[in-house]
């Protein structure tokens, strides 16, 4: 217990660098982190408002594509019955 291990010296060096050398850098980093969180929350709220306007369709429903006026959706068995 009399001497410190290399891990203890490393932790002490990191603490000293933070206390004496990185004061402004840490506050700037935390400010950027807070701005990122605020931006994330804002974008999540925007996404929720967009999905609530599209709530007219049932979930999982895919609307069919636009079709030509003379187009009829018949199966091959229906076509075969009509031809016979």
UniProtKB/TrEMBL annotation:
GO molecular function, one term: protein transmembrane transporter activity
Gene3D superfamilies in the record: 1.20.5.3310
Membrane topology: Single-pass membrane protein
Alphabetical GO biological process terms: protein transport by the Tat complex
UniProt keywords, alphabetically: Cell membrane, Membrane, Protein transport, Translocation, Transmembrane, Transmembrane helix, Transport
Predominant subcellular localization, coarse grouping: membrane
Comp. bias regions, Polar residues: 64-77
InterPro entries: TatA/B/E, TatA/E
Subcellular location: Cell membrane
Record GO cellular component, one term: TAT protein transport complex
Spans annotated as Disordered: 45-84
Functional description taken from the UniProt entry: Part of the twin-arginine translocation (Tat) system that transports large folded proteins containing a characteristic twin-arginine motif in their signal peptide across membranes. TatA could form the protein-conducting channel of the Tat system.
Similarity comment text for this entry: Belongs to the TatA/E family.
Oligomeric form and interacting partners: The Tat system comprises two distinct complexes: a TatABC complex, containing multiple copies of TatA, TatB and TatC subunits, and a separate TatA complex, containing only TatA subunits. Substrates initially bind to the TatABC complex, which probably triggers association of the separate TatA complex to form the active translocon.
Designated name of the protein: Sec-independent protein translocase protein TatA
Organism field: Gluconobacter potus
Lineage: Bacteria, Pseudomonadati, Pseudomonadota, Alphaproteobacteria, Acetobacterales
């Amino acid at each position: 217990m009399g001497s410190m291990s290399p891990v203890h010296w490393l932790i002490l060096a990191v603490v000293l660098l933070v206390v004496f050398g990185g004061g402004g850098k840490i506050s700037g980093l935390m400010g950027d982190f807070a701005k990122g969180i605020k931006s994330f929350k804002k974008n999540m709220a925007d996404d929720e408002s967009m999905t609530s306007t599209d709530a007219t369709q049932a979930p999982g429903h895919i609307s069919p594509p636009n079709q030509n006026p003379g187009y009829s959706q018949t199966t091959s068995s229906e076509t075969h019955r009509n031809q016979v």
